[in-house]
Structures are given as structure tokens and as C-alpha cells.
Amino acid sequence: MTSNENPPSPVWVKSSYSNGQGGECIEWAPDGAAARRVVPVRDSKNPHGPALVFPASSWTSFVSAVKDGEPRA
């Protein structure tokens, strides 16, 4: 069975680490990420541009590392 309906647009959330000065801003779409097993991420300054898609497990690891203050590689 196929459907001609388009899936709903993701609801984007701006990172709490974004600086509010127009730089270093990312957004992610958590809605349904667990079900999709992927997390889309985009540059909030370019909302109509491309989004990167990460496996949900990798995104979770990344967010945990940021929260824990792990040094950059």
C-alpha cells in the first residue's frame, strides 16, 4: 500500500547552546526521532538549506558529551 500524503514537516528546536548573537546556532528535530531512529540537524541561519541526519544513538552520545564538557577531538 502506498500513500500520496506527504509526511508532516519536522518541528525544529534551537539548541540551548546557541549563543543568541546569530552565530553557532543549530536546530534539531526531536519529534519522532526515536521512531525514525535518526535525528535531523540544520543550521538555524539557513532553515531552507540542507539538514544533516544522524543515527539517534550517535546524536544521543554527542549531546551527552557536550553536556559533560568533554574536550573537542
Automatic annotation (TrEMBL):
InterPro entries: DUF397
Domain of life assignment: Bacteria
Organism: Streptomyces gossypii
Pfam short name (any one): DUF397
Descriptive protein name: DUF397 domain-containing protein
Domain called DUF397: residue spans: 11-67
